[in-house]
Amino acid sequence: MRRFIPLLSSCVFILLIALASVFSPFPLFIYNTTDSLPHGIYLVVPREYRYGDLVVFRVPDDVRTLVRERQWLPDDGFLMKRVAALPGDQVSTAGGHFVIEESDYGLVLDTDSMGRPMPGFDFCGILEEGVVVALAGSGNSFDSRYYGPLPVDAIIGVAFPLVLGDCF
Fold first, then answer.
1. ∠ at Cα 80 (72, 53), nearest 5°?
2. In this structure, are residues 55 and 30 in contact, taking their beta carbons and an 8 Å threshold?
3. Are strands 40-45 and 155-164 parallel, antiparallel or unpaired?
4. Using alpha carbons only, what angle is made at residue 154 by residues 148 and 155, rounded to the nearest 5 degrees?
5. Measured between alpha carbons, how far is 157 from 166 in angstroms, rounded to an integer?
6. What are the two backbone dihedrals, phi and then psi, of residue 15, each rounded to the nearest 5 degrees?
7. Of 88, 78, 82, 79, nearest in space to 130 by CA
8. pLDDT grade for 16, boundaries at 50, 70 and 90
9. What's the CA gap between 122 and 22, in Å, rounded?
10. What Å distances lie between residue 127 and 27, 53, 136, 150, CA to CA?
């Protein structure tokens, strides 16, 4: 009987995680399949975020149709990007470059990899309270350079990688 205790404990633990995931008002785990961040399973924790934190949020309303039509994510999918700018930071898309506090984060592309037009976020100024800018590590990621700053109440939580790589 003693040798079954680890197995039984593991099964109970997995069952508790599954139940928590089903009844949670936000996702506890996300499997990232996009190429802008490493593929894998991420744990989502509802907590305050800082510069560089990987935040999880729903696709912004003004680009939801575009994301659906291009099949970048399922309708109930979430985006994960790193916090790059907070209220009080200088942000600019002037000259086709995304610049935050004098650091160039790359081009704001006119088209995606298939030549389709991309939306534009036209801004030059200081971010106001209640919004953040979220970017991915790659220059061709669909991030705030295309849909603008995110309302802070759109952020579900901070993501932490659990298992990276193509798991499934």
1. 160
2. no
3. antiparallel
4. 100
5. 23
6. -65, -45
7. 88
8. low
9. 39
10. 28, 18, 19, 11
Q: What is the pLDDT of residue 107?
A: 87
Handedness of CA 34, 160, 84, 58 (dihedral sign): positive
**Any idea how long the chain is?**
168
> Residue 74: pLDDT above 90?
no
Structure tokens at 85: 């700018």
Quote the tokens at residue 163: 């298992």
Give the pLDDT confidence of 89-124 residue by residue, as tens digits: 999 988 888 899 988 888 888 888 888 998 888 888
Q: Smallest Cα–Cα separation from 93: which of 125, 66, 129? A: 125
C-alpha closest to that of 158 among 60, 26, 36: 26
27 near 156, Cβ under 8 Å?
yes
Tokens of 8: 């039984």
User: What pLDDT was estimated at residue 9?
Assistant: 60
Of 97, 108, 115, 113, residue with least CA distance to 147:
108
The distance from CA 84 to its chain's CA centroid, rounded to whole angstroms, is 12
Q: What is the rounded average pLDDT for all residues in the chain?
A: 81
| Cα separation, 98 vs 123, whole angstroms | 9
Report residue 80 as tokens. 């994960």
Confirm whether pTM is higher than 0.85. no
